[in-house]
Amino acid sequence: MPLTPTEPKKRFSVVVIGGGIGGLAAAIGLRLSGQTVTVIELREKYLGQTGGARQGLNQTANSYTCLYALGLEEPFHKFADNGDHIKMRRYSDGTVIKAIHKKKRYSKLHREDLLRILYERAVEVGVEIITNETFESIEDTQQHVRVQLQSGRTLQPDLVVGADGVHSKVRKSIPSTKDITASPTGDCVFLVNVPKSVMAKQPSTAALYKSGEDPFHFTVGPGRCIVSWTITIRELYHLQICDFQYGDGKAYGLAEKDDSPLVSTFTDMPALRKRWGDFDEAIRTLLDETDVCTKWRIAETPLDMPWCSPTSRIVLIGDAAHTFEPFAGQGASMAIEDATVLSCLIARASQDPSLTLADVATAYESLRRPRVDAIRAMVKANAAIFGLADGEKQAERDRNIGGEGFSVGGEGREEKGAYQGTAKWSTEEAYEFTEGYDAVKEADGYVFGREG
Ligand SMILES: Cc1cc2nc3c(=O)[nH]c(=O)nc-3n(C[C@H](O)[C@H](O)[C@H](O)COP(=O)(O)OP(=O)(O)OC[C@H]3O[C@@H](n4cnc5c(N)ncnc54)[C@H](O)[C@@H]3O)c2cc1C
Ligand SMILES: *[C@@H]1O[C@H](CO)[C@@H](O)[C@H](O)[C@H]1NC(C)=O
Ligand SMILES: *[C@@H]1O[C@H](CO)[C@@H](O)[C@H](O)[C@H]1NC(C)=O
């Protein structure tokens, strides 16, 4: 059933812990289908918070289909830049290797802008949002689930949604996942935002900044790549500078093992400029003009951890359930898909009182796991082909990428875990798989079985 305001036969009360992208999307979906929803969020406020880790987000059709179902079509396009080409550039001289055409448009926006539209919609549909708050403990038994908030309040909902991100404390509250943490993969991404006025100074950088029109560049080099685009509404050019050989940070002058937090402010620009000194003039100029960026060490959770507690009263979504590397721009999209599928399943249970939370939990895991695992495998393959060193393989990639027959092995990445076999990149088939997914349709089409 569509996520439009409905009168449920049975009304669930839900506490969503973590009001990030996934948590707010779930809150909206659940509320639209008639449940009562409270969000518990650590951050002090949503509007007017500056910084936001300088993060831009890639949103493809699979994600914005969900956002439309949540009633966000109009605000989403107010903040996003759209395009249907990806311009792939060569690192050493910035020449465009290929302009890859995509059937479905992609959208790019700033993370804080996506949070803002989700927050405003959640308030509009009647979600209770408690900011500057977290929980002390969760008691999860066959009889009930109880959430003890830091402020002293106790909540006893039917369902707890754990949407508290990569370091999830909800995950740690479930006995079967309490020891699971996200471990650094050795990859690192530096997030740089350059003002439009600075982009205009030089012809090479001015050429990268074209407001709103096909804003996406993708510069590939040995062991590294840069994805970059305009964020027109903020008059910014956003770069995600991805180093697949970051390791312990030796190339950036770190003598010891890097034990900085996953996300931190980075100011050693001379080290960054040195490491990226073999990239083209436009990139070098932008790094010269920048004195601070966000450093994001990439971590991932294991593949096979459970996403629901044994009582089915706690369900994990988004990064809390599955953090993976960002090299297909799909992490937030998976959180939004999780949220949409869960909302639709709960909506069905609220219309059919014979369905239990255990039925919902089984359906949620069996719909979401194969999808998330496949996207993760694609991410591994991406990192392998984006970072090819100059040579025969790289020349072959540059000739064939975007063509129908193009498929890649994940060579050199298998030892890192998940990825085995081959994956296709930028073919119609791969795009259809990633972007043709309709979360509402999947959840509505699920056939509930009754055997244990
Ligand atoms: C460099 C980089 C680039 C990326 N680019 C893209 C991209 O282009 N496209 C894309 O789709 N994805 C991208 N991702 C992935 C994306 O950022 C994440 O997958 C997404 O943010 C996950 O959403 P979430 O809601 O699960 O978690 P988060 O967005 O992390 O939200 C968690 C929320 O929970 C709150 N919280 C945490 N702990 C508690 C607590 N104890 N109590 C209460 N609240 C708590 C936090 O304050 C936060 O608001 C990228 C990731 C990285 C690292
Ligand atoms: C958030 O809570 C802390 C105490 O836990 C308090 O000192 C601070 O003022 C609160 N911030 C806001 C914006 O309410
Ligand atoms: C955005 O997603 C598409 C499809 O997954 C992918 O081809 C593209 O590389 C992604 N862009 C970024 C910036 O990650």
UniProtKB/TrEMBL annotation:
Sequence intervals crossing the membrane = 12-32
Where is the FAD-binding domain positioned along the sequence?
A: 12-224, 313-373
Per its UniProt record, what InterPro entries does this chain match?
Answer: FAD-bd (IPR002938), FAD-dep_Monooxygenase_BioMet (IPR050493), FAD/NAD-bd_sf (IPR036188)
**Keywords from the UniProt entry:** FAD, Flavoprotein, Membrane, Monooxygenase, Oxidoreductase, Transmembrane, Transmembrane helix
Q: In the record, which residues are listed under signal peptide? A: none
Q: Does the keyword Protein biosynthesis apply?
A: no
A single Pfam family, by name? FAD_binding_3
State the superkingdom: Eukaryota
Record region (Disordered)? 399-421
Q: Which family does it belong to?
A: Belongs to the paxM FAD-dependent monooxygenase family.
Protein name in UniProt? FAD-binding domain-containing protein
The source organism is: Zasmidium cellare
